[in-house]
Amino acid sequence: MLMSFEPLLALYALIAYLIGSISFAIVVSRLRGIADPRSYGSHNPGATNVLRSGDKIAAALTLLGDAAKGFLVVLMAGVIASLFDSTWCDINDASATMCRSCYHSCLASSK
Q1: To 10 degrees, what angle do helices 56-92 and 24-32 make?
Q2: What is this structure's pTM?
Q3: How many CB atoms lie within 10 A of CB 98?
Q4: How far is CA 92 from CA 7, 25, 31, 45, 110, in A?
Q5: Residue 49: other Cβ atoms inside 10 A
Q6: Which tens digit of pLDDT belongs to each residue from 10-61?
Q7: Domain ranges for the chain
Q8: Cα 96 to chain center, whole Å?
Q9: For a tag on the chain, would you pick the N or C end, based on fewer CB atoms within 10 A?
């Protein structure tokens, strides 16, 4: 049974949006007991502004948290793409440029 691609993409977009909306600068600042990074410096939540508070550990945790959430979203996209890579070849009778892992089967099925 083939899964539909669109509901999974919509779910992925929602999850990616929610993951991206987590501000590790604010979370780490509250956990470490330092001032909200939006109240000083450039007023932007981020590792550089957290570093301005003088807490290097909080700045490093903020940087790692922001990098991890970006890595997680890209990893999720890769997993979803690999799930549907061969499905695109089977369903769409795709050209070789649309497929990565099923290059030869796409060539064989193209008209």
Answers
A1: 150
A2: 0.69
A3: 14
A4: 18, 44, 50, 44, 10
A5: 21
A6: 889 999 999 999 999 999 999 999 999 999 989 899 999 999 998 899 999 9
A7: 5-109
A8: 27
A9: N
